[in-house]
Amino acid sequence: MDKILEGLVSSSHPLQVKRVIVRRVVESAETPLSGPQCRAMFALSTSLILQGPDPFQRQVGRQVLEAYARHHRDDFEAFFTRDLVLALLQGRGPASPSSLAPASPAPGLGPALDPAVLDYIQAGLRLLISCPAVLELFALLQEEALRLVGERPPAPLCARLCQLLGDFPQCLPRGRKPALAFCQQLVRNIAHFQTQGTREAELRLYVSQVTHVSSLLRSIWKAEPDTLLPSLQELFAIISSTDTSFEPSVALASLVQHIPLQMITVLIGSLTTDPNVKDASMTQALCRMIDWLSWPLAQHVETWVIALLKGLAAVQKFTILIDVTLLKIELVFNRLWFPLVRPGALAVLSHMLLSFQHSPEAFHLVVPHVVKLVNSFKNNGLPSSAAFLEQLSELIQCMMYHYSGFPELYEPILEAIKDLPKPNEEKIKMILNQSAWTSQSNSLQSCLSRFSGKSETGKTGLINLGNTCYMNSVIQALFMATDFRRHVLSLNLNGCNSLMRKLQHLFAFLAHTQREAYAPRIFFEASRPPWFTPRSQQDCSEYLRFLLDRLHEEERTLKALSPSKLQDDMNEESLVQEVSNKTQKFTKPSCTGREERTLIEKMFRGKLLTTICCLNCKSTSYKEEAFTDLSLAFCPPVFLENVDPRSSENLSEGKDDSMEQVSTRVSSPMVETVSDCCEMLTNDGLLKDVPIDSNCENATDSFVCKAEDKDSLQKYVSEATPSVTDLLNYFLAPEVLKGDNKYYCEKCASLQNAEKTMQIVEEPEYLILTLLRFSYDPKCHIRRKILDNVSLPLILELPVKRTVPSLGQISGVWSAGLDFSDTGENLAKKLKPSGAEDVYCPQLVPYVLSSVVVHSGISSESGHYYSYARNVASSGPSLGSYDQAKSLALAYPQSNLMAGEAPVATVEKDLDENEVSKEWFLFNDSRVTFTSFQSVQKITGRFPKDTAYVLFYKKQNSTTVLGTKSANGLWVNGDPPLQKDLMDAITKDNKLYLQEQELSARTQALQAAAASCSFRPNGFDDNDPPGSCGPTGGGGGGGFSTIGRLVF
Questions:
Q1: pTM summary value
Q2: Handedness of CA 499, 505, 510, 515 (dihedral sign)
Q3: CB 3.0 to 4.6 Å from 299: which of 63, 102, 257, 372, for a disulfide?
């Protein structure tokens, strides 16, 4: 029968005839045959399977073998022996084992084994599965499988072997060491797999072969968990190799999906902290893992890549992250073209770009490729493409927001994505804050380093340089004045070494540095008033006033100087001297409507109209003054109890009876008036345990106060908490000038009783209010602090008197020759009477609270300053004059201007509902934390020595603000682009900071075993006083009896 079959398959008969005869041969297997006949049929069928020249012969061999082995199992068991299988696996032919000689495999390439041999062995095992002899074959295959994988078989053979072992797991190597060696060798084999073609069918076959191998490894890892970690160690050893002669296959990506995600934290933590892993090896490994994104069927590759990136950031190995990002960012972007790997590539691209925040270099590498990709996906119109484009557009918008100032690069992109949704500014900031390398942390690093990058707020603190909290709190309040900050950052100050340039530099670093806290040494030295003693506590209000005056006068000086003189002849010292000289000369307001206003005037200047009416002849004198802040005295309780908004008589009498305020200090940027540190103010019932002399005098300050006997006012002490509105009403209340403070009337040519009224006729963009909390004690010769709590309204309505016609002509006449430091009788004598009767149009202009500077302590010479602030920006398009028709300020009758009857509660309620989107921040030198408006309101109630001192209010619904869109439309709702030299300086410092952090982390990691990982985290607002800097600090520690201290 075997001869017939052999002659048939090699004959030239038609294929159909051959099939019929083969069917007869297969059917004859049921008839009894002798042993030699069965063996002859087994040998022939084996030869056809392994050596058949065409598929027909190989198919005939399989059919015949299966039929005869099933009906003659004993004979097949005697034929399919251990020796036969061993000979086949060692590359020898199917002849009698005794005649087979060992084959000599090529060195390093393994035996010339045909995958058909494994097919044949698998078929034989299936036929003998119920026979005892199969156990011997299993034992043989356990040994041979380990040998075969050790000889690095090519992908087709290795895949076929893994299929066999998957179907017969009894053939897998047994014991921990053989199983571990087998797994590690399989990992090495995958690393050497290479595809043999580029056509789709060939690639699909290659992917299928790799999948068979990785699936077997997954089964082994599941059955033998001890083999997983050593296998992964072998995997990392391969991809971290720096041998340039060998490049591991991306097929290794197929293993990642089989690693349990629960192991990410442990594995990445162990890997990134292992001192034996060199930077070069880690860089190589990470690059190759990113290459794995090209593998089409692998899952979770992006998860592991991102986890490793975060792990390296957590241990501050920034050099590796920078090198890998710059090397691979374009490759990752190009993977977005391929649908199968696009989701993973986009996830990795997003993380790499958003975390690379110290320099635009990485983003600018992919910028040239964005437009082409966007247009391609816009044209195909697939739903998946639309969703992908939205994600890509959000990523690109975030990066252009963070690195604005490159219109030539970004304008084509803006045009391409103009129809796609754009995230709002708050979302962009949140994404950037959460993604930065310095926001990554782990438990080890939190123990090792106190400063590990910006806090979760995304804001930057200011380092205390030695009792400089007074400056830090003011600078943070100015920085959070959004429109002012954007103006400063948008100025073109190249070639100018001015104070404004230094402020721009400071603001730029606060906005873009990666550091948790910035040291403003250069700005401090440039902005410190000359009479301020270094390293001693100072008055933040006095510093703020000096700073704004300096900036104003400097800008005027620079505008007056020619550009050539400024660039060629002016160094910093000569510029300061020029500013000082100019300041001495400018003794009257010179910025009329015909002159361009300075930035300080645009942002902070308002105007007060002082009116004095002689009660004898009824003649009236006017004087218009500019101010940058209003100093509000504490009103006595009698004022709060007797105030009647419909009666100006009650107001004037109440103010006169309780405190005669001859002149209220008004600061102007046009005049260099430096107020003395010792303002004199008494307020009965506020310092109940401090004796105050009623006859206080202050020859150096423009604020003079006179109080009645302390005992006579005790009856007016009220438990009610005054509000800022009450203090403002008291400030604007009419005042009767009588007795020693009579007014010299030129018309009467004698001293007369008069009524003095101050009215705000032009409101500033930012209203700065200083609460006069420090009173001079002549007995002790110190300034004591008024510790009364003051209610801070979220919305403040400022009464503004508008005149028709304008008071420009009046101010031009009466301000001539006046010195703003004149007070009392001198001021009255210089005011000229006027019979002009103007028609007033009263308005209540709404302001929203922007910042609060808090003083913690009981004396101006000691204590601590910190500030609360939030981002409040206007929506108006440009800086310009006030447009009454467009103003949304609330207008009320004259009688209600100071009554507090306007519907503020409704506005506050609306704002309170939006508090979630308008977060408050607590700036306490180096520390910046989230807080709430409730914490701001309750600070004095919780910590009696912590009191609001300087308030910043922003005008609402203003049309006089900086535009939120530049000419090229590249910074909508964001800060303007930085000048190139500023961006370069920040990029350089960010790189330096990352290197410092990395060096520190590596040094401390070596000492981690012996280091103590205990530290006291910052307390919450409700637990610890924000102003506390030490055991005797700020508030809450020892109540009123705590000894005051300086701040370090």
A1: 0.59
A2: negative
A3: 257
